[in-house]
Fold phosphoinositide 5-phosphatase.
Amino acid sequence: MQGWVRASRVLALVEHDGHHVLFVFLSSRVPPQTFSDLTIERLLPIDADFRCEIDPDSKHQDGVDVYVNISSRKLKLLFELVPGVKTSNFVGEIFRAIEVFTKRRGPPPDFHWLQKYTGNMSRDMLPESSLAEVESEALQQSEEQQDDSLSSTLLDLECADITVPRQSIAKGTTPIAARESVIRYQMAMKEHHYTYTQVLRIFIGTWNVNGQPPTVSLHDWLAGDPEPPDIYAIGFQELDLSKEAFLFNDTPREEEWQAAVINSLHPKARYRKVSLVRLVGMMLLVFVQEQHVAYVRGIAYETVGTGIMGKMGNKGGVAVRFDLHSTSLCFVNSHLAAHVEEFERRNQDFHDICSRMSFTRFLPPKGIKDHDHIYWLGDLNYRITELDPKLVKECIEQANYQPVLECDQLRQQHKQQTVFVGYKEGIINFRPTYKYDPGTDTWDSSEKNRAPAWCDRVLWKGEGIEQVSYRSHPELKISDHKPVSALFDSQIRVIDAVKYRRIHEEVMKKLDKLENEFLPQVMVDNTEVVFDTLRFLESQCKDLIIANTGQVPVTFEFIKKLDDSSYCKDWLNIEPFAGFIMPGEKCDIKLEVFVDKKSAFKLNSGEDKLYDILVLHLEGGKDIFITVTGTYERSCFGSSIEALVYISVPVREIPVGRLMELENSKEISSTQDPYPIPKEIWFLVDHLYRHGLKQPHLFEQPGLHSELLQIRNWLDQGSPDPLPGCVHSVAEALLLLLESTAEPIVPYNLHNICLNASSNYIQCKQIIMQLPEHRKNVFLYLCAFLQEVLSHTNENGLDAKTVATLFGTIFLRDPPRSRGDLTSRVRTNQQALDRKKANFVYHFLVNDQSDFILGR
């Protein structure tokens, strides 16, 4: 069909020393037979500017995954390979490569190794890092790239070489999603024909308010410019320093500061709130002028907190994203780790926020980097080092900022490319924003005599952004920080509706002529997938290949069996579980088995086993059945308290049948007396007692996954060596052991009674006395240990409310619920329930328990 064409390409994902590059080849034959058939067309390094997106509409419609949009810097390519010409696994590998890059530390890769591949290529086909070094004329194709290569179709309306085959879009239900995907991506290819650039003014503000209420006007900070901004993004840190806010994420300060902001927005314009998101003391407010509201879509917000098992901590980040016209924007407000010497922890916090901030309403989820314009604000907490505080203050009084900025940790780390790679920051020509005596412009006069520092910063990333101003506002004095603001002129792509409709109609007319009807046909390379021995918290993966052997695209999906709630068991993950395969192409399915605290107890008791039957459904075709089997190596994690007290040797030394008998018997017969408490709990608590009582942030700071596995092996196998791992890892292992049981310490059937009695210590004691003996022993043993921990509060910084809140969610763990039920509950009364749980445990941390008898 004239004007509607496609050209074949071969893609290869190449890895070298942990760095990945997507090679795009032209082929003289389709499919290529030898490496000499291939010529490199483009090299796309997977770096901070690389993006890969799957069409969201085709995902939404019948689980179909049709086209992939890959972009790098200004280049945008659309591939008809979804879910991936070596199908979805290939796309999955690309996403994993992106994740590897996102989680990596240190300077970005330079990709010098690409030099030998870049001969005979025009400069616009090369990665930026290689442009200055391309001199080679030779071109060779390695066998490694051959193995990882796959054929794909690159849609191109401008080329007239190859017409689209009629069977590329079939008729009936299958082509609907494919049709929508083709429309979307053809429109994306033509975007420059129906869009133009509009410059909008964006105001970014950040202020650590040190827990103070808004007793002053914010007008000078938010509305001091002659013209109103189009967009406001205003971030606060330490909104509320009370224990209530820290423990329950609940504070009246949210409404107070929101009202203060709304009352201080620029009077020359009318604004509408886009979103408010808060995590403990971090809050981000985003407003747009009313004239832009109709063009805002795709609003989403997310939070990332730090702390052990995600339960505690007031550091982290909150973010809001949305699309304005045809430009995606993301605003991130963060509060990074404190203390002068902790710059590496601040770096870690930044990378954690980047890797964990995921807007899950999109498929695949969008990260921070997957946006055109990114604005990062907040109390980043980077300090001034290597300079005496007195000298710092002297330079500042003389407005001689440069020698001080040279010792600024953020500048140093940014220069070393360990954080904020690709981000820009404007010139700082204002006084440091921290630390002042509240209510004054006087530097910190406390005993610590902290050196002034530019803790509060604004950075940005993206093309078409120009900073207009960057300043502090020292007239606002209620906090020990000064607020900061930055103004930007940002180029937003706007759609011309008339031109859009005309081009859209052209695309529709071309698609209307493409139709065909065939039945889907596939082959699966393995219908009996067998995993090796699996262990708690260790994942294993197997690949499954689905090949489209028919003449039409195939839509597939793994569907749930009759009476099942899901298409696979809890310990199994299938990626992708649905997709779309073009004729002659293949799709790699990743099957991952991972036994965690939610599934371990079922496998230990024999209630479940590593066996599942998957139903692969072809839309318009037949179902294919695939079995998944494996052997689980049982662990103390997931074992009940009642079973563990009867096990005097490491778990792996007893027969599987005996463990299942212990788990399932109401009356256990044994020649030996049971322990008062499981030895595994004693080992962990004893280690913490001897090494962790004075450890700051005990039960607040997470441990290391690698050390958790070492601790698991030590407990399960037994060892004459000391218990491995740092104190924080041992503490997390203890919590994980308690959370992996089928029921919490206090059984589910007593939860309502406990919560109703939470204000009455006498009733709480009576409930605990009625617990089964070993559960009562464990509860009292742990409370006695926690009382000892709290006797060292001057060293470890813990307090009874914090500990009670954490262990309230452990001792009175919520029963597993469906996603909908959980969401509803969180929205209604979860905070009230958490308070009651904390109150229940609090009684046993602050009262004398000597009248309880611990033992058999």
Observations:
- The longest strand covers residues 195-208.
- The longest helix spans residues 773-790.
